[in-house]
Amino acid sequence: MQAATLRHGASAILLATAVLLAGAGGATASAGGPASTVPAAPSWCPKAPRLPEPSGPVIRVDTVEALFQAAREVKAGGTILVADGHYMMPRYFEIRTDDVTLRGASGRRERVVLDGARSSHGELLGITGCSGVTVADLTVRNVKWNGIKINSDRFATRVTIRNCVVHNVWQRGVKGPRVRPEDRDRFRPSDCRIQWCLFTNDRPKQFADDPADRQHGFGGNYVGGIDVMYPRRWTISRNVFVGIRGRTGEARGAVFLWHEAEDCIVERNVIIDCDAGICLGNSHRPDDVPVHATRCIVRNNVLARCPEQGILADYTRQCRILHNTIHDPGSRLRRLIRLVHDNPGLVVAGNLLSGPPMRVETNSPMTIEHNLTKDVTGWFADAAGGNLRLVPEALPEVARVPRREAVPADIDGRPRPAQTAVGADEPGEAP
């Protein structure tokens, strides 16, 4: 994407609307759903490159019934190619075969909609007992509990979720549940990738969206974007999260890694108007979970207005929070970055906090250096719209800090010089 596209034309409207095109013909009619709209990411966010054509056996589907049949019949290495259409899902849909790809045929994620509004189950799309599955170029929406469930408690691993929209899901957009104690030595969900996706809800969660929330006493705040337990070597990159909010403003993280997460990378994501941004751990630590996150890296992310907390480190070991930009001058709880409980070996460096200073609520041995805390609303291309890239007028004022080995490039892949800009964006032409 050209630099001009990245830096200009951002709107204060957080979500444009992309209309599902008319003329999907038999696909829309036979799927049983009406024409609909799917939110789009802000125009200044980069788009996913198109996937190559399938190389293995292909099953083409254009009805709900054919979709379920394809999941039963597909062989390892095969592709289920879904025609444009609005598919009203009657029940939970599951993939159980290794190396299967489920993808929209057109490559336009807003044109293939798996809709759970009439489903008899609270979860929509599951991956169970298999590895190497890819889900790409489609929308999952209107789900009471979990939109895409990586069933790590039933040996699902090496999953890729790419260029999808997760819309109005009222517990977790992507969920990786707890692994049983007897399985942890031999299995943890590993090497998963979630990239180029949009996670968005139209409004804060309400009690009517999920009666189970009231039963468990979370007050309508049990909602988040990506929530994974025991992940190992995951990459969560180039996603956009907008409006993931709880009923009283206390939702879980847009990205939430916990229960012995190891060697995960969270980078180049955009998080706008979500209650909580990126959370490495939380204050609940079961007896069999000594550490929530080890050697995880959070780098080159931008976060605008995450009032519960922007970036959190809570019971971590040797993690790094590097070159992120967090903007919220009026932060309700003043937690743009929060460090709490035990975090030995944590490095927090090169971050731009446009608002209150970070909250350090721990005596753990840590390295905190080369961060800038200052309300720099005027430095950004469109702070209201969440575009926190730096405008040319700000360049003489931008603080320069030493480049770190773990952050050789910025949010757009632009190489960083030896003295690089604080925060996620290194000003200059796009690579």
Beta-strand content: 25-35%
DSSP summary, beta strand count: 42
Low-confidence stretches: 1-35
Measured between the Cα atoms of the first and last residue, the distance is 9 Å
Number of DSSP helices?
4
Give the key terms.
431 residues, mainly beta, Pectate Lyase C-like, disordered N terminus
Protein described:
With 431 residues, the protein is mainly beta. It has two domains: 1-251, Pectate Lyase C-like, CATH 2.160.20; 282-300 and 311-431, no CATH class. The protein has four helices and 42 strands. Strands 3-4-7-10-13-16-19-23-27-31-34-37 form a twelve-stranded parallel β-sheet, with helices on one face. It has an eleven-stranded parallel β-sheet with strand order 5-8-11-14-17-20-24-28-32-35-38. A ten-stranded parallel β-sheet has the order 6-9-12-15-18-21-25-29-33-36. Strand 39 and strand 40 form a beta hairpin. The longest helix has 10 residues, at 64-73. The chain is globular and about 60 Å long. The protein starts with a helix and ends in a 10-residue tail after the last strand. The model is unreliable at 1-35 (pLDDT under 50).
Describe the structure in brief.
The chain folds into two domains: 1-251, Pectate Lyase C-like, CATH 2.160.20; 282-300 and 311-431, no CATH class. The protein is globular and about 60 Å long. Helix content is 6%, strand content 35%.
